[in-house]
Amino acid sequence: MDLWVVGPQGAGTAKGVVVTNAPHSGNGSVSLIDAATNAITATIPVGRNPKQVTVYYVGLAASDNQATPTW
């Protein structure tokens, strides 16, 4: 699994993390985790076998969508 960090990389700067739902990554979804509370705030369908983790910061976002359509 890859880790993608965008923006400042100091401790405590991340607002949210998107992680694959491994070992069930074949279900085609990722989870959005609130970095402050470690709570899952959303489950997002993205296609088959998502393989990356992305850290988001205020005002910044990253996208490296290599998902396979599920239709």
Task: Report on the architecture of this protein.
This protein has 71 residues and is mainly β. It contains no helices and five strands. The protein has one domain. Helices cover 0% and strands 37% of the residues. A five-stranded mixed β-sheet has the order 1-5-2-3-4, with no helix packed on it. The N terminus is likely disordered.
List keywords for this structure.
elongated; mainly beta; 71 residues
Average pLDDT level: 62
The portion of residues forming beta strands comes to 35-45%
SS elements, strand count: 5
Percent helix = under 10%
Strand order of the largest sheet: 1-5-2-3-4
Cα shape:
elongated
Runs in which pLDDT lies below 50 for 5 or more consecutive residues are 1-7
Order of helices and strands: EEEEE
Structural class: mainly beta
Number of domains: 1
Query: Which radius of gyration do the C-alpha atoms yield?
Result: 12 Å
Number of helices: 0
For the terminal residues, how far apart are their CA atoms?
Answer: 25 Å
Please give the largest β-sheet.
5 strands, mixed
Summarize this, please?
The protein is mainly β and 71 residues long.
Describe the secondary-structure layout.
Layout: E1 2-5, E2 16-20, E3 29-34, E4 40-45, E5 52-56
Parallel strand pairs: 1-5
Antiparallel strand pairs: 2-3, 2-5, 3-4
